[in-house]
Write a structure and sequence with these properties.
The protein has about 240 residues and is α/β, with parallel strands linked by helices. The protein has a domain of about 160 residues: P-loop containing nucleotide triphosphate hydrolases (Rossmann fold), CATH 3.40.50.300. It has a six-stranded mixed sheet, sandwiched between helices. A four-stranded antiparallel sheet has the order 2-1-4-5, covered by helices on one side. A hairpin with a 2-residue loop joins strand 1 and strand 2. Helix 3 packs across helix 5 and helix 5 packs parallel to helix 6. The longest helix has 28 residues. It is globular, with a radius of gyration of 17 Å.
């Protein structure tokens, strides 16, 4: 199948600190790759490179065959790349509905606002139940749903999801992954950066294991279980 996202021999340095070493990854159209690794392995840096938030020191990033290396993040977005970063990223003093309207008015305009809101509430019914609630009073999991809903209402060509389950209760993680499966079935390709190994393996067809800024192993998800045996993953973000 045709690659929709490619990282080719990507190196990244932050000043004197080397973060990535020759990372190559391919996500095919409609496919899903889980990027796994311990805290500090460089997973978040890979996610940021793949969405244009960090420019490689060397190497290249291609979306649908077009070289986007070094361009601004909004050009990645125009090419169909959506990035759901770790954290909550909500306006705490606004209601759920106001948070969504702010985002959707910019991306869908006044004419598409109602449809976008309905879609968000279909994806996450809990948000519909709390549409009038101040976002800062939501649980951590509900705030995470709110931030994700703003990205997933219109399924992108490629979704880069960075530690979506971080700090969430198991029941909320199940809800988030239910939505990710629905988005994937609709045709969105995915790069899932995750420490929840079980959830990631169920969703993805391929796995890449990152260690010390380099790809240590890559292969089919059904072969990854043996590779992961004995590995310990801690919670928290990485560099």
């Amino acid at each position: 199948m045709n690659p929709v996202l490619e990282l080719r021999e990507v190196n990244v340095s932050y000043g004197p600190f080397r973060a990535l070493f020759g990372v190559s990854l391919t996500v095919v159209a409609g496919g899903s790759v889980a990027l796994l690794g311990a805290n500090g392995a460089g997973k978040t840096t890979v996610a940021r490179v793949a969405s244009g938030l960090v420019a490689p020191t060397s190497g290249s990033v291609l979306v649908d065959g077009e070289d986007l290396t070094g361009v601004r993040p909004h050009q990645y977005a125009r090419a169909g790349v959506a990035h759901a970063p770790e954290g909550r990223s909500v306006f705490a003093t606004l209601t759920v509905a106001e948070n969504l309207r702010l985002s959707f008015h910019r991306t869908h305009g006044a004419s598409g606002l109602t449809r976008a809101l309905d879609r968000a509430y279909d994806l996450f019914p809990q948000l519909g139940d709390r549409r009038s609630q101040i976002a800062g009073t939501l649980s951590g999991g509900e705030q995470r749903m709110l931030s994700i809903a703003r990205v997933l209402v219109d399924p992108p060509k490629v979704l880069i999801a960075d530690e979506l389950s971080l700090g969430l209760a198991p029941i909320i993680i199940d809800e988030v992954y239910r939505t990710l499966r629905a988005i994937r079935e609709a045709g969105t390709a995915m790069l899932i950066v995750e420490q929840q190994v079980g959830q990631a393996l169920q969703l993805c067809d391929r796995v890449a294991v990152l260690a010390h800024g380099a790809v240590e192993w890559e292969g089919p998800a059904d072969e990854a279980g043996d590779v992961m045996v004995g590995r310990m993953f801690t919670t928290g973000g990485d560099g």
